[in-house]
Amino acid sequence: MGLPVVLMPGPMNQSVAAGLAGKCELIRLWEESDPDAVLAARKDEIVAIATGGTRIDRAFLERLPAVRIVASFGVGYDQIDATTAAELGVVVTNTPGVLDDEVADTALGLLLMTVRELSRAERYLRAGQWQERPYPLTKATLHGRRMGILGLGRIGQAIADRVAPFGVSVAYHNRRRKDVAFRYYPTLVEMAHDVDILMIVIPGGDETRHLVDAEVLAALGPDGILINVARGSVVDEAALVDALRDGTILSAGLDVFENEPEVHPGLLELPNAVLLPHVGSASIPTRDAMGGLVVENLTNWFDYGLPVTPVAESADLVRRLSS
Ligand code: 8YV
């Protein structure tokens, strides 16, 4: 029997192809001059997909009836219709755990940059303004702040662990209460009202789209700081621009945007927004670890017919496969 055929629709971290070398035949679709012809010709042979940001929906999966696993790079997988995949008998996997610390570190860096205006202060120095006068005192300090985490999961917990030594208290809002010591808020508005840092770590997708809207921003208030390291879609970006412009909230630190890599032009003009180009997990060691987990999911599938880290939507399917 030949090697299993794996489709890679778009470029991925090189660790994925390196880890799969010799274990499968890899079709790098973006390098093909006629991708549609390749998909049509190989549709009965392609048994797996390794993917980063490509949208994988019903139409895509129906073109590839032999596919049984989609191994996605990243913890968020909102670009993949995992519910439809399960209906079609296709397991979806992601890469949880290996990026928690990196993303939590980035979140904390972004918070410090935002609250103490650190990137703005550096621009001030580089522009030679320090020689004229010292950088103005920042309105805000981190000390004594209360953080509300929207979406307390593994990354949220890693952020909570990091802010405790800074003297920042933690509360959270999830759909369901968890067995943790932090205060739980059943509604986001109520939590936003009581905290002055709103930390977004909730998954993207239709269910969480624009959860942070004008009402939540108003509740966060004029001393409020919004940090988003999750997905841009969770925030109504137009409402955020208005809130930052008119002082409804104090400032925002954003690693993610609604229409990446495009950034709302209003945000680019605002001095009270710190903007990063989605670098939450973007270190070589962490991205290699994520790539390694993509490979592990695929090789475990080929060798034993089971994934290592299936997403929640695939749980029933995996249960049936393993019984
Ligand atoms: C990456 C991420 O940017 O894991 C995620 O959900 O957002 C990031 O770690 C993404 O996976 C890049 O493809």
From TrEMBL:
Any GO molecular function: hydroxypyruvate reductase [NAD(P)H] activity
Record-annotated D-isomer specific 2-hydroxyacid dehydrogenase catalytic domain positions: 24-310
GO cellular component: cytosol
Protein name as annotated: Lactate dehydrogenase-like 2-hydroxyacid dehydrogenase
Gene3D superfamilies: NAD(P)-binding Rossmann-like Domain (3.40.50.720)
Family in the record: Belongs to the D-isomer specific 2-hydroxyacid dehydrogenase family.
UniProt keywords, alphabetically: NAD, NADP, Oxidoreductase
The D-isomer specific 2-hydroxyacid dehydrogenase NAD-binding domain, residue ranges: 108-280
Residues of the signal peptide: none
Entry keyword Oxidoreductase: yes
